[in-house]
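As a warm-up, study this chain.
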Amino acid sequence: MEDLRNYLNEIRRDFADKPLTEVSVEKNPFLQFSTWFEEAVNAQLLDPYAMLISTVDEVGQPHSRVVYLRNISEEGMIFYTNYNSQKGKNISASNKIAITFFWVELERQIRIEGTVEKVTEELSDKYFAARPRESQIGAWASNQSETIKSREELEENVKFFTEKYKDTTVPRPPHWGGYLVKPVKFEFWQGRPSRLHDRLVYTKNNNDWVISRVAP
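Now compare it with the structure written out below.
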């Protein structure tokens, strides 16, 4: 532990000098997100669509985990999961949510705050039908976030549902589907030298987005 503490206290690295200005960004945060996301893809980052989502349970305890962004429009961002999972239960308790993208290779971070709601069953059906069959079986086999006795229990569930649906299309479980995150705030963070980072915030005001700069 002492070596770890020493490392954490001594490690330092400076950031590149790539500015982020009010003039250079798009006026719409979804377009700015699209620009940065395209640059992350072109930089061949591993899983640029991986995002940390934070939810709150009924007693105010926050919970965070990484999921994949699976769709986006100016209405919001969509991810899919088990509705009975911890995140699903959190969302039932509070519709407030936060998202973080961190692309360390580009020295960039995007923070998003908003509300979350289920997508339509039709949209969930369409996405589920396009998933690999093994992932479809997994959605039935895994009681996500629930305690299980062993890995073997999970594997037995996979065998059961593989056999059950061997001669038919795997239907979407009623407890599995999509969530739409509807942002009300974006923050685009660009690392800069001497920890004097650029942070531009988009705040929704009715149907307009207001851009402001905050101190690093």
